[in-house]
Amino acid sequence: MYFVYILQCSDKSLYIGYTNNLDKRVLAHNGSRRGARYTKTRRPVILKYSEKFRTLSRALKREYELKTWPRKKKLELINKIK
User: Fold this and answer.
1) What is the pTM for the complete model shown?
2) Which residues, in sequence order, are CB contacts of 26 under 8 Å at separation 6+?
């Protein structure tokens, strides 16, 4: 399984990524050298949203789609699940 996720950084910016191990990846963003360059200077990050996919191809397509959305639409998606 693959996951597409949205993190909220300490400066309130949003980060979108994909992984095959969501828990491990969020831990990496928060404390590892393997975290994304963008999130390293914006720690701590909080997982706000995730979706699960059976294939990497579908996850990558969804990640790209979410990255093209304006911030307002991303926040609406996050708030929809609350």
Assistant:
1) 0.94
2) 5, 7, 45, 47
Task: Find the CATH number of the domain harbouring 66.
Answer: 3.40.1440.10
* Residue 23 in this model has a pLDDT that exceeds 80: yes
Domain that holds residue 68: 2-80
Where is 5: in which H helix or E strand?
strand 2-8
**Structurally, how many domains does the chain consist of?**
1
Alpha carbon distance 56, 19 (integer Å) = 9
H/E stretch holding 2 reads strand 2-8
CA 22 and chain centroid, separation: 9
